[in-house]
Amino acid sequence: MAEPKTKISRVDPVWDQITEDAHQAVRDEPIMGGLIHACILHHKTLDRALSYRFAAKLSSNEMSMVILREIADEAYASAPELVESARADLVAIYERDPACHRLLQPVLFFKGFQAVQAYRVGHWLWQQGRYDLAYFVQMRVSELFSVDIHPAAVVGKGIMIDHAHSIVIGETARVGDNVSLLHGVTLGGTGKEDGDRHPKIENGVLIGAGAKVLGNITVGHCSRVASGSVVLTDVPPCKTVAGVPAKIVGEAGCDQPSVKMDQMFAGK
């Protein structure tokens, strides 16, 4: 009789690093052990940890943690791409945010990461036609994190929302991959019109703090929107726009503005 094969564990270097960070954090600060075990070390995979964190943060007297955990577990089991997007988001934050020193930090402490992962579950619910539950998730994310992303909006992977205060992303907005948004960014409409009325942000875009991008317009790939700008017209790829209303003030300055996070402009 043939000897049974040893089961080979799935390789997940991001999760391995998070658990290593968690063990070190407990050694450094034992009083955090209960939280870290509940959120990280009690779980065998990233999706289980994300599911727990989603339920723990969004639960209230209106919706129990048990029910929310079941919803998140169903979402991650049905849509593995949610976990792949979370991995990409974690790496994006670690690489772009100088305040992020460990992969553990976003999972436990960064409301931008937590808000985006909760939105992803809400978006999955929206795609399933479970609209009221998706709206509930949107409401709780807005209440908890000051991040208001409509569950119908489409958001890519590798997203960093730094500080994540007062972020608004409207119903028909589309955000590409590897986009960085700073606090106070609005991707909104321009009035009461119905239909496709929100911005389309292409891959690799950097949008500075307080910028407002309004209407059914496109911000081309690898462009930069300066802090405090109001963008009302299309932005070509690989350009920098600034002002109220925003105008082209130069080139983007590098191949990947959202990764380099350089918000300075050397004028003529």
UniProtKB/TrEMBL annotation:
Q: Which InterPro entries match?
A: Hexapep (IPR001451), Hexapep_transf_CS (IPR018357), LbH_SAT (IPR045304), Ser_AcTrfase_N (IPR010493), Ser_AcTrfase_N_sf (IPR042122), Ser_O-AcTrfase (IPR005881), Serine_acetyltransferase (IPR053376), Trimer_LpxA-like_sf (IPR011004)
Domain (Serine acetyltransferase N-terminal) spans 14-118
Pathway(s) this gene product operates in, as recorded in its UniProt entry:
Amino-acid biosynthesis; L-cysteine biosynthesis; L-cysteine from L-serine: step 1/2
Q: What is its EC number?
A: 2.3.1.30
The record's catalysed reaction(s) read: L-serine + acetyl-CoA = O-acetyl-L-serine + CoA
Q: What class of enzyme is it?
A: transferase
Cite the GO molecular-function annotations of the record. Answer: serine O-acetyltransferase activity
GO CC terms, sorted:
cytoplasm
Instruction: Print the keywords alphabetically.
Output: Acyltransferase, Amino-acid biosynthesis, Repeat, Transferase
Q: Name one Pfam family in it.
A: SATase_N
Gene Ontology biological-process annotations: cysteine biosynthetic process from serine
Q: Which family does it belong to?
A: Belongs to the transferase hexapeptide repeat family.
Protein known as: Serine acetyltransferase
What is this organism's lineage?
Bacteria, Pseudomonadati, Pseudomonadota, Alphaproteobacteria, Rhodobacterales
